[in-house]
Amino acid sequence: MAYQQHTGIFKIPQLTSEQEQEYLHLGEDSFQSLLERVLNTPNIPWQAEDQYDGVSIFEEKHEPHHLSYRMISKINATIEELARIHDFSSPANCKCYVSEYATDIINMETLHSFIERTKERPFRQAYLKWNAIRSPVPMIFCHRDFVYVETQDEFELNSGLRGWAFAQRSIKAPFAPKLYDFGYARGELLDTGCVYLETEIPGVLDVIYCLRINFNGSMPSWARRIGLRARARGLDLMNDRVHRLRLCSQHLRSPESCDCKTTTNSCFICQKLQHFKHKHCQSCGKVVCAGCSRTWKLHGTEDTEENLQFVCVCIACSLAIRGRTTSDPDRVTQRSSSAHLIPTMKEVLVERPNSFEMMNTITTAELATLQESNELNDEPSLGLDLSYVEVYRSRRR
């Protein structure tokens, strides 16, 4: 269902059916290119660039002004939850995403939504979008804006595990002139996107974010590093974003109902006596201290400021909610003992127009570095393991 953006910057014409099909075809080509680049052939030499908040950043040798980076992380989430977060079918959803989920985005508008999101088909989406990215150093470098087609879809591995991805490719749109007067330099997205892959651990996904961009202007490495860290921080915060969605679906107590049940002034987790005003977990109702709880800013179902509320949840309830998963355990398959060796793989893609040889793009040495740096308390090692990625099949919605 399409809608017009109301900023007054662009005047969006009514697209013809031929134009819609052209954009949909462009988006599908971008989606395929992203998956083929992430999961398959080119044996690209990636160089470890940085490590920030649990996100590993790799850089590919690139041409001047054409930058190529890859970020790798883990997330406690399901494909269904990620699809909901990336629902840009309304202006309210775009506004919520920018304010809550993307610290480096100044503004985002969906200019045209090609496919209506439904419960039966929640994963296949295609948008014509505009957004403005904050400059890492605004006093020196201009902000960048982009006009692009974004395609989202689910795909399936031959192991039975699923994946979900979105791909973005810039277009030349005569109805969206460059906004130099507003302080923006028009950049170009070259099949930028993110791939989420189910793992053998239910509710835990591999995250591979690919940034291929042409800034259409110079930007030194130190400035790029600042921008990359801002984007990496966004990936790291995705766990909090998913956690907020899960908290919104919980039946939480009101502060008043918690106060009337108070029989002790000691934190039930650390047992420290709370001499001053104590807090209550609005999930279990027990007394907690500030160190054993966290206040969450939650939105209602419509993600509007009117539905904004602040709730206190203890770490015990948070861990229980974070560990919840809607994944089907029967879909999880066991890997062989040699699966963790990350051998070079050569397979053929199925249900795609062309065939490509599969090769792993992360070296064993880089994998070892990831495994050392991505440990999370007492949980299993979260080092990247994509050995189960042999072939994929894009589901047609």
TrEMBL record:
Stored CDD domains: FYVE_like_SF
PANTHER family listed in its UniProt record: FYVE-FINGER-CONTAINING RAB5 EFFECTOR PROTEIN RABENOSYN-5-RELATED (PTHR13510), RABENOSYN-5 (PTHR13510:SF44)
TM regions (residue ranges): none
Protein name (database record): FYVE-type domain-containing protein
Domain of life of the source: Eukaryota
Organism of derivation: Thraustotheca clavata
InterPro entries named in the record: Rab4/Rab5_effector (IPR052727), START-like_dom_sf (IPR023393)
